[in-house]
Write a structure and sequence with these properties.
Elements: E1 5-14, H1 24-33, H2 37-40, E2 45-51, E3 54-57, E4 69-74, H3 104-114, E5 118-123, E6 126-137, E7 140-151, E8 159-164, H4 168-175, E9 189-193, H5 199-205, H6 213-225, E10 231-234, E11 258-261, E12 264-268, E13 274-277, H7 291-303, H8 308-320, H9 327-330, H10 335-341, H11 368-371, H12 375-386, E14 390-392, H13 398-406, E15 410-412, H14 416-424, H15 430-434, E16 441-446, H16 453-459, H17 462-469, E17 477-485, E18 490-491, E19 496-500, E20 506-511, H18 518-534, H19 541-559
Parallel strand pairs: 11-13, 14-15, 17-20
Antiparallel strand pairs: 1-7, 2-3, 2-4, 4-8, 5-6, 5-8, 6-7, 9-10, 10-13, 11-12, 16-17, 17-18, 19-20
Length: 560
């Protein structure tokens, strides 16, 4: 039997290093992360709790009973105790592993000392227990992180992290592990995985590769094996864990959505789904991630997703919140548009036009060839959700939308980026159905000279109305007798419209019948003025806010 050796390993770290970022949560998360298969080079990871002398797997343990010991373990290759002394990671070039910086084991140990957690590392033929060495350097008092090593006492496969006599706070963190580490969550759902992207998308990524078609696919498959697959997931609270879920996650309140990096939860995000991404752009303490990289990865997942449940939920959200800041909605905006919005703003800024098929639709973000492989899922979801006669709303002309609805179509208003994306996929918009106004239905415009004296007097009240409402730019207002079809027959029309001509000219139209009384004229004109100023449809939050702001201004002036 080999001689038992005892010695001390000193590190260059003090117990205060990154202490503001490392508490008991990080101790548990990084403690378990070191044992994940991609990090340990093993096949399994387990968390066991010793209760009444018996070791139970986490999902079998009873959170109401005392815990004497906690063990994180794997069946991997283990590691040399000397690695505890240096900031070096054997996994920094491995895209599949969580560890990158060589700090995890040291920071877990330093946190354990600060928080009075009795912790040990076991691997191969040694045991390491963290300790602190008090020193004075250049007049500064500090505690250096060290490890007391016992070597050749026994031999194990893989490695373990052992916590003796854990406090209740540590135990609570342990029972929350399934909500924070996917490898130990038995109930989350995988909704879409990047490796399941259609083959045409895969081929496009390698279209510049000089190798042959078959060779390109082989190269891709090999690359996919070597990288962590981005995923859309649903981290719903596990029914079988029941009361084991502690704290905030036990609340029945609306779901919070979270970003996982390589299976370990990092931050809460404004999204419709949870995401597990293979990002490398993450801080050593795993408290923040490069936001542009998050958006880029989510963009790719969302745009290429074929899961009808995911697509349908995004469409529903796009209809509920036309100015939404969810990552899924921002996936359909250009980078310039996203930067214009900003995370802290609540409204979408931009005037989105929906060209006709004759004008040729040029999608700013996506090439049609790239999207050929996903036309079917998105179009099917749109049709299933809204019906066979559903069309996209034309944002420039409420008249067109009204005309199309009279023809039996359902006009759908969506977040502008999503609507533009769908239009690029060939989903019909209202303007395509209505066609050019001059060839279908035409307004009969009336000159001011054709109005009666009473109607002219009413018309000339417009500057006064604008002044009262604080509108600096006076819009052009035209009067029409009615809307007529190609045969000259009058058809039912709106009492007012706001129109944008192909050359960009914008104006308001008021039906002549509305000039008969102050009440009717004011109501119709101010309503259309709201459309003209906000460029938004009825019931859009920005359209509604226009009237709230103007009413508040008038009340404030009256009080003065």
């Amino acid at each position: 039997m080999a001689e038992i050796k005892k010695y001390t390993i000193e590190t260059s770290l003090t117990l205060d290093y990154r202490r503001e970022r490392w508490g008991l949560e990080r101790l548990v998360l990084d403690g378990v992360s070191n044992h994940l298969p991609n990090d340990s080079l093993g096949t399994r990871v387990s968390v066991k709790l010793k209760q009444a002398g018996v070791y139970y797997e986490l999902h079998e343990a009873d959170c109401t009973k005392p815990v004497d010991e906690i063990v994180f373990e794997d069946d991997g290759a283990g590691y040399d105790a000397k690695l505890l002394s240096v900031l070096f990671s054997t996994k920094r070039a491995d895209e599949l592993s969580v560890g990158q910086f060589g700090e995890g084991l040291k920071m877990v140990a330093a946190t354990a000392l600060r928080e009075n957690v009795d912790l040990e590392y076991h691997s191969r033929n040694w045991i390491a227990k963290p300790s602190a060495k008090h020193e004075t350097i250049d007049g500064h008092e500090l505690d250096r992180l060290c490890f007391e090593i016992i070597e050749n006492g026994y031999n194990i496969q893989g490695s373990r992290t052992v916590i003796h006599n854990p406090s209740q706070i540590v135990i609570n963190e342990i029972f929350n592990i399934p909500t924070k580490i996917l490898a130990l969550n038995r109930t989350y759902s995988e909704l879409f995985n990047e490796k399941d992207r259609p083959k045409t998308f895969i081929k496009r990524e390698y279209e510049k590769n000089p190798l042959g078609f078959g060779a390109r696919e082989r190269v891709l498959q090999e690359k996919l094996k070597q990288r962590y697959h981005d995923r859309i997931i649903d981290l719903h609270p596990a029914e079988e864990l029941g009361e084991k879920i502690i704290g905030e996650l036990k609340s029945p309140a609306r779901k919070k959505r979270h970003l996982f990096v390589k299976g370990v939860r990092v931050i809460e995000i404004p999204a419709l789904f949870d995401y597990d991404l293979g990002l490398e752009h993450i801080t050593p303490d795993r408290s923040s991630v490069n936001e542009d990289k998050i958006q880029e990865r989510i963009n790719n997942l969302v745009v290429d997703c074929t899961n009808q449940e995911v697509i349908t939920r995004i469409l529903q959200r796009a209809q509920e919140c036309t100015y939404g800041m969810d990552y899924e909605l921002q996936a359909f905006l250009t980078k310039e548009e996203r930067e214009g919005i900003g995370r802290s703003e609540i409204n979408f800024k931009g005037d989105i036009n929906f060209p006709t098929m004759k004008e040729g639709y040029i999608n700013k973000m996506y090439e049609i060839k790239r999207l050929e492989n996903i036309l079917h899922p998105w179009r099917v979801a749109f049709t299933n959700l809204y019906g066979e006669k559903a069309v996209l709303r034309d944002e420039n002309s409420s008249t067109i939308n009204t005309d199309v609805e009279r023809m039996g179509y359902t006009v759908i208003s969506l977040h502008s980026g999503v609507a533009r994306f769908l239009a690029g996929l060939g989903v019909t918009n209202a303007r395509e159905i209505a066609g050019p106004t001059t060839t279908k239905n035409e307004f009969c415009w009336i000159s001011l000279e054709q109005l009666t004296t009473q109607e002219q007097t009413m018309y000339h009240r417009i500057p006064e109305i604008n002044t009262q409402l604080g509108i600096d730019t006076l819009p052009e207002v035209r009067i029409y007798a009615g809307l007529f079809d190609a045969k000259g027959s009058e058809i039912e029309s709106s009492l007012g419209v706001q129109i944008t001509e192909p050359d960009g000219t914008r104006y308001i139209g008021i039906k002549q019948s509305e000039l008969q009384t102050i009440e009717k004229f004011y109501a119709t004109y101010i309503h259309e003025l709201g459309h003209f100023v906000t460029r938004r449809a009825d019931y859009d939050p920005l359209f509604t806010q226009f009237f709230i702001d103007k009413l508040s201004k008038i009340i404030d002036e009256d009080n003065d």
